[in-house]
Amino acid sequence: MSTLDMRAACKPADYKSDVKPIWCPGCGDYHVLMSFTRAFAELGLPPEEIVVVSGIGCSSRIPAYTNCYGFHGVHGRSLALAAGLKVARPDLTIVVASGDGDGYSIGGNHFLHACRRNIDMTYIVMDNRVYGMTKGQPSPTTEPSFDSALSPGGTGLSPFHPLVIALASGANFIARCFSGQPNETATVIAEAIRHPGFSFVEILSPCVTFRPDEKDWKDIVHAAPVPATNDPAKAARRIMTDDGFNLGILYRGDRKPYQPTAKANIDLAELEREFEL
Amino acid sequence: MQDTQGISVAVLGSGGAGALTVGNLLLEAACEVGWQGLLTRTVGPQIRGGEAAALLRLTSGRVECMPDRFDLLIGIDWLNAHRFGAEIEVGPHSLVISDPRGGELPPIVAESSARIVKIPMKDLAKAIPDGRPNMIALGIAGRLLGFGLERLLALIEKRLSGKGDDAVRSSQAGIRAGFEAVASLELGRPLGSVEPPTTKRWLISGNDATALGALRGGIRFAAGYPITPATEILESLAPSLAKVGGALLQAEDELAAVNMIIGASFGGTPSLTATSGPGLSLMVEALGLATAAEIPLVVVDVMRGGPSTGIPTKSEQSDLNIAIYGLHGDAPHLVVAPQSVADCLFTTQWATYLAEALQVPAIVLSDQFVGQTQAVIERPADVAFIGQRAKATDIAGAYKRYALAANGVSPMALPGTPGAQYTADGLTHTERGTPTSTAADHLAQLDKRRDKLDRFNYGDHWATIEGSGDIAVVTWGSLTGAVREAIGRATQDGIATTLIAPRLLYPVRPEQFAAALEGKKRALVVEQSHGAQFHRYLRAHYDLPGEVRVLNRPGPLPIRPEEIHRALLEWRK
What we know:
By secondary structure, chain A is of the alpha/beta class. Chain A has helices spanning about 5-10, 30-45, 80-90, 100-105, 110-115, 160-170, 180-195, 215-220, 230-240, 270, and strands at about 50-55, 70, 95-100, 120-125, 175-180, 200-205, 220-225, 245-250. Chain A has one domain (about 25-275): Thiamin diphosphate (ThDP)-binding fold, Pyr/PP domains (Rossmann fold), CATH 3.40.50.970. Chain A contains 10 helices and 8 strands. An 8-stranded mixed beta sheet of chain A has the order 2-1-3-4-6-5-8-7, sandwiched between helices. In chain A, helix 7 (about 180-195) links the parallel strand 5 (about 175-180) and strand 6. In chain A, helix 6 runs antiparallel to helix 9. Chain A is globular, with a radius of gyration of 20 Å. Chain A starts with a helix and ends in a 5-residue tail after the last helix. In chain B, helix 4 packs across helix 6. The radius of gyration of chain B is 26 Å and the shape is globular. At the A-B interface, strand 1, strand 2, helix 3, helix 5 and helix 10 of A face strand 7, helix 7, helix 8, strand 9 and helix 9 of B. Strand 2 of chain A pairs parallel with strand 15 (about 425) of chain B, so a sheet runs across the interface.
């Protein structure tokens, strides 16, 4: 099927694989998968031209559930892997999927540098404020009072604020979504993919197994009252002061994406001359 | 007959004194008249104000190791010389030039039987406006090595062409003063004669040769994090890759660097990173991923003294264990080691070819000695080892990325190929790439990844095997040159000896190794590792002859040809 035919015919189902997810029943990530496939269909991209890259954790299982190319790598390093891929293959559309442990804890340093580097890719973090795959330990976004076997009586630590960090580090597009609103989320993901440079989408995606309290998120979330700004100072104030459940595109920057211009203009024999006596 | 010993010069001073510049200029002058040579540097950790020495060896033929001792040692000053006096050995035939105001001679020099001549280099320099003692040293060394004054003056003019006439004038005056100061002096051993060069020669460091070998092999993407003594590879690749249509990313750390090259290689671009021990330690998890997901890549480890931060500026062969055994799980991959500055080019190119052919990571174990040594070499021949990956392009039916092919290598579909979408995975997977935890799937893929390496024909490049006789000297990497030189001397003494130096360290080649050892009664193992890692590796994988001796020592003291020769002589008794 040619690209043109594809654009005419894409349906979300074209982007779904036949691999059965390992997620628990009721997991928010099912909806995120639905949003992925809807966004891809909306963009009309041929599935073979999309690569979904991930690390380790429940959310990082998502590449194999799509019908795109995928890379399920080591814990925390998906952004680095994606950076190399995009620089080597600027023709591909790169979507990186992560979770709050993979992306903010073990992968925290790469998050800063991916924002700063501003390579054209979309980074989607499914935040459920808990380590699900290892059965319920606190993550960087977990509330200080979260009681668990690893954090008896709570962590006592302030949660990490991913959107603020993304903005301060230079992300070019910042949005927050809720998995329970798959259509809205799909629209934001499609918009993030269209936006040049490094786009960051935080998706609140409840873990019904280890954080049953997160089932209430559906009643707490609300659409952002004002449209996205391109002023980082305004965006910072808004992100710093909102309640954490403010949904929508919150910042759209206009920094130029980083892409080395790779053009061969000499051959190796010429390079070797440098060493001739 | 060739003068295999040649002549050796060490110029020493505190950091910033300009000792390394003198070494560079002497090598350049020597090349012009036809000498081949090596220039290595030994420096401390300080960026400025530490200690530095240029160690230069000139011979009429190929030279791949430092000498037993130096014929000429010039101490511009001795302020920090005690820190590495042991690395610069002098003997009864040596001439030491010392400045009476340059501080106290290090005991190892003062107590040697070398002839010590005092020349006031500082005072001579002071008498010249903007004069520098290192130019006096250049004049001294130049004359003692038999280079004409005009050649030295022309050389400095060329070197300082951008710095103005005053700089050239003061440096030339310094060279003249040094030249005059040693009018009546001669070296203890005369410098032989040399024919003018008839072929195009190169002056190149091992790190630059590594970068060039990578490019020749087809590397078009690199990522890296600065680390001594590997940074020059990245600094050489950054501009070169841009010129040949590739790219380099400076990563935020080594974890990112290795994952970046995995990503680029997954996209189809042959990729490389360069690092040293601490960086390799950070990379091993991702090397396991590349092994499991069958992603070709090249990791160059320019070894330095370890463990931990160790001695960043000095050589050691102590990363053999981590390179071979560092990955968790059963993770067969390639480990190769260059044997000289020139061989850095070939071995890196070959590693790129092998990695691509076998869809596996290759670790290249270079070291600080070959990496940071400048050598005059014949232009390395063009060889046919260009990375060629088996790719799946025409997809009929369900694509199986990890299909159990007879040779273990399954064609790889690159993103963009319609109908072949799959997810590369570090999880144990089926032939299709889908995660699985069954015993049968696990075994099938472990077998596949082992067999593809074992069944491959690596050809004669797997090892350097030279000479005959019932004694074998078994060594690896940058020590090969010193062993070759020692064997040359032993042969003259009538001790027939075979050199065996595997270039391919992993996977092991038991049949070829047994063939190389056929008829040997004794083996001497030579390596620069405190824990005798290479000897233990040989014991684990190969059958050694009845009598085995091990000559091992950690860095930074090099293992000299004389010590190896002596060990062989002892066997004759």
